[in-house]
Design the sequence.
């Protein structure tokens, strides 16, 4: 009998080309997702060396970050974004890399499009020049974000030097209460361990809640692991995974599908496997969450109070909290619920999938966006948009006063024209509330799609559970 | 090639805030640049300059006597958040060669290693002491061949790196070249075996 191993260890072991030191290895990378923002300099490195792309078919490129979500029938208005997108097209053509163009129905955020196309598969390693690559771990994929240099290395050599992570089991026990979603679990976890609390770890989410989660919910959970510092997050593949993947364009077919599934079934952590660290969350104790500050760890339950820096002993932490409150324009000791918002953003690789739009639409149906609020829905991909329209969700949103946009990162990163003005406050289903993230001086509150919908309707940050009771 | 780093000495900048993320180090809107020019101008842009583009005199990077600093003493979680390598390019382009902090964002540390930016991890208390010394204008010094890190000639710690890593710093080698030169056959041999274990990954190529 070989030593019991965790899912992470199985994925790691099966991709080690060779160890370089005790802790670092050259790791084979099966797949690479590219977007326009993180790769221009990577291609310059390839051009300079004349080294070519090792296996073009192992790559898939799509524009998503800098592109506008309106007027797709016209050239991109912003000259820099236009040049960056054009550069991606030139680069992928020169190197023969598979590409999904802007006006293709499959276009979308890398972390929505990749799984949708079946480019993301269990048992593989996947890299992308984006920190939320952990999303793909929902499939039992060893997926991690890399910088531009590493994007170049993967393309040229199909391998990367990586340090083996320690393993952290995050067990979510019990049952979630109504109105509480994967986003709330993700936020509650970050609040518990802190923004860099899982740095150096590969997380595996375990327990009945995760097993019952849809693939979309698992992706939401894995997506935000990086907000706790973990570059890698995993959920063991199971029948839910296989059913979700089967028949997608890039998954194996016929005999190869059967072979693949039987291999994938061997991946879950062995029962006796030991993790370096274990964290348990009681699902029943998780309320809908919302961030009040400028770090995803600045999270409280919706019925909580904005914290008071005076109660914090550590001087640096106290200073950071004061700065965050000041930036956010909030007073300590007040309830977070009832805080008025100017903008609502539903979308991103965290919550831009069909189930997320459905959850929001359920709240929005038959109601109107508060008059002073601008509300956007930006589907995670063209296919998400299409599926939502087939279900009539676009009508629900538009009738309520939402804007219904084309797919992209949009106001998650504010590289296009969807951005907050200084001082504007936004209820956002994205993943980062950093200073300036949604536009210089913009104030972001992270929350779930249902909570964002509730904020749009009431014009304030609202406890979704109370809204449901009233209706 | 990244700029070789053998021996470096200067005063240090102190930026003790915890969780300085890469959006603060390099705001996203500047990611629209497609080359690596002018990175230093974007470094900490929204902290260095007010909304009208006027320099904020109190921001540590704007202090007149720190314009030649090559060391940064930072708080915990420095470089957390986005994977943008521009955060590292902007620091090195500005002139920073060494960052000392209790811990760093994972992806940021990977990016630093590829660009000759030396990261030194010390426990919180020691970093706090160094921050005070940095404020007072102490001379920080790092020596890669001797693996030493000193402040005002007092050794703070040994640099934890093997010969290969040291050589990469001193020669300014980039990892892509090391891998392409030394590892190609290893990758090819691995790939041949991998193809038999997960043939479905190679079906289309
Ligand atoms: S939606 Fe936001 S977090 Fe996700 S890939 Fe785009 S910019 Fe990054």
Sequence:
């Amino acid at each position: 009998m070989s030593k019991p191993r965790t899912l992470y260890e199985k994925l790691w072991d099966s991709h080690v080309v060779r160890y370089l030191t005790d802790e670092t290895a050259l790791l084979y990378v099966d797949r690479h997702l590219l977007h326009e923002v993180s790769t221009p300099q990577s291609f310059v490195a390839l051009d300079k060396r004349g080294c070519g792309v090792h296996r073009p078919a192992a790559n898939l490129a799509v524009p998503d970050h800098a592109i506008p979500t309106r007027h797709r029938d016209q050239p991109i208005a912003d000259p820099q974004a236009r040049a960056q997108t054009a550069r991606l097209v030139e680069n992928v053509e020169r190197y023969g890399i598979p590409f999904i163009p802007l006006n293709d129905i499959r276009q979308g955020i890398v972390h929505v499009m990749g799984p949708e196309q079946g480019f993301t598969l269990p048992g593989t390693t996947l890299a992308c020049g984006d920190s939320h690559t952990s999303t793909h771990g929902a499939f039992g994929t060893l997926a991690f974000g890399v910088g531009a240099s590493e994007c170049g290395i993967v393309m040229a050599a199909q391998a990367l030097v990586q340090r083996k992570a320690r393993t952290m089991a995050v067990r979510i026990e019990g049952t979630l209460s109504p109105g509480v979603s994967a986003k709330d679990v993700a936020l509650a976890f970050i609040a518990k361990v802190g923004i860099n609390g899982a740095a150096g770890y590969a997380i595996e989410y375990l327990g009945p809640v995760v097993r019952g989660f849809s693939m979309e919910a698992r992706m939401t959970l894995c997506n935000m692991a990086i907000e706790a510092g973990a570059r890698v997050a995993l959920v063991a593949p199971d029948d839910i995974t296989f059913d979700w993947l089967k028949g997608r364009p890039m998954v194996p077919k016929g005999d190869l599908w059967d072979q693949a599934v039987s291999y994938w079934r061997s991946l879950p952590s062995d029962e006796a496997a030991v993790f370096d660290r274990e964290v348990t969350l009681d699902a029943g104790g998780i309320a809908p969450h919302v961030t009040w500050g400028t770090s995803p760890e600045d999270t409280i339950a919706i019925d909580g109070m904005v914290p008071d820096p005076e109660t914090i002993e550590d001087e640096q932490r106290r200073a950071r909290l004061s700065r965050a409150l000041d930036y956010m324009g909030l007073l300590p000791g007040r309830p977070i619920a009832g805080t008025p918002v100017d903008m609502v953003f539903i979308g991103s690789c965290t919550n831009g999938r069909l189930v997320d739009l459905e959850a929001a639409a359920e709240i929005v149906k038959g109601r109107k966006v508060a008059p002073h609020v601008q509300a956007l829905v930006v589907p995670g991909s063209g296919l998400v948009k299409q599926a939502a329209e087939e279900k009539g969700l676009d009508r629900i949103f538009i009738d309520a006063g939402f804007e219904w946009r084309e797919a992209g990162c949009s106001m998650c990163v504010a590289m296009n024209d969807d951005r907050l003005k200084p001082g504007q406050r936004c209820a956002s289903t994205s993943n980062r509330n950093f200073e300036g993230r949604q536009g210089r001086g913009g104030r972001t509150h992270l929350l779930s799609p249902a909570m964002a919908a509730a904020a749009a309707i009431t014009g304030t940050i609202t406890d979704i559970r109370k809204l449901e009771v009233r209706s | 090639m990244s700029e070789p780093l053998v021996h470096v000495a200067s005063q240090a900048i102190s930026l003790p805030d915890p969780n300085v993320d890469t959006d603060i180090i390099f705001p996203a809107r500047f990611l629209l640049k497609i080359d690596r020019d002018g990175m230093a101008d974007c470094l900490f842009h929204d902290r260095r300059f007010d909304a009208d583009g006027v320099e904020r005199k109190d921001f540590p990077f704007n202090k007149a006597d720190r314009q030649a600093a090559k060391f940064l003493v930072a708080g915990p979680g420095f470089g957390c958040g986005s994977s943008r390598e521009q955060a590292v390019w902007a620091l090195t382009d500005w002139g920073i060669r060494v960052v000392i902090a209790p811990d760093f964002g994972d992806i940021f540390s990977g990016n630093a290693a590829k660009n000759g930016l030396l990261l030194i991890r010390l426990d919180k208390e020691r970093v706090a002491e160094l921050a005070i010394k940095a404020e007072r204008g102490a001379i920080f010094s790092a020596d890669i061949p001797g693996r030493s890190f000193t402040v005002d000639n007092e050794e703070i710690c040994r640099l934890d790196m093997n010969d290969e890593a040291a050589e990469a710093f001193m020669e300014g080698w980039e990892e892509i070249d090391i891998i392409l030169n030394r590892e190609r056959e290893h990758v090819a041999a691995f790939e041949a075996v991998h193809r038999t274990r997960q043939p479905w990954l190679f079906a289309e190529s």
In short: Chain A has two domains: 7-277, 291-466. The pocket of iron/sulfur cluster is lined by residues A 65, 109-111, 130, 132, 348-349, 409, 412-413, 430-431 (CB under 6 Å).
